[in-house]
Amino acid sequence: MGKCEKCGFENNMQYDKYCRSCGYELPQEEVEQITEVPVPKKSGTKNKRIGMFVGIIVGLLTMYAAQHFIFSSDLFSIDKSVAQLANEINKNCPMMIDSETKLDNTIALPNKTFQYNYTLVNMVKEAVDTLEIKNALEPNIINFVKTNPQMKEIRDHKITINYYYKDKNGAYLFQVKVPPALYK
Predict the structure, then answer these.
(1) Does the pLDDT value for residue 31 go beyond 80?
(2) What domains are defined for the chain?
């Protein structure tokens, strides 16, 4: 319903073109006409090629993954054992090793790598020579890994050991990396 602009009579705007009272032409709402545009059909051969290409890629990736896991099952087993070792040690962390050193935690890293995370509780990075401290600790750490009976399993499985040090504020100081080549 709508009023005529000239006389104010209520007309049915949907059906009436002219006012029923005065005959004045009523404004008509414009109806938007929608026309369908035909979409050209894509050729089936192009879709088949894409599907075949995707299938080949997925197949190759699947073969690679299967090969990788089958042939690296020993590595997976060792990495899993290293992760279990880290979890066991972490049950007692953090713990003070000596008056200067706190073991925060341990983590198992990929590729047969085990890392000890330490804090030097009385040091601030800006006040110490990190290279001097690293050079003093590194020979002792390597000797410890080479000779300590508790490290035998680590040596037998050729696990790389990282000793990561930070200062009392959590700032990185240095890292000592002991790969199997250093403790053979």
Answers:
(1) no
(2) 74-183 (3.30.300.250)
Concatenated DSSP letters for 45-80? Answer: HHHHHHHHHHHHHHHHHHHHHHHHHHHTHHHHHHHH
pLDDT tens readout for residues 46-95: 555 665 555 556 554 555 444 444 334 455 577 788 888 888 899 999 99
- Cα distances (Å, whole numbers) of residue 141 to 9, 55, 135: 101, 51, 10
Angle between helices 44-71 and 73-90 (to 10 degrees): 60
- One-letter-per-residue 3-state SS of 13-37: CCCCCECCCCCCECCCCCCCCCCCC
Q: What angle do CA 133, 134, 140 make, to 5 degrees?
A: 100
Burial of 174 (0-12, 13-18, 19+ CB in 10 A): middle
Report cis status (omega within 30 of 0) of the bond before 94.
yes
Hey, how many other C-beta atoms are within 10 angstroms of the C-beta on 123?
Answer: 20
Give the chain's mean pLDDT. 79
- The pTM of this model reads 0.58
From residue 70, alpha-carbon distances to 56, 65, 74, 75 in Å are: 21, 9, 9, 10
- Looking at residue 68, its pLDDT comes to 46
Average pLDDT over residues 18-36: 69
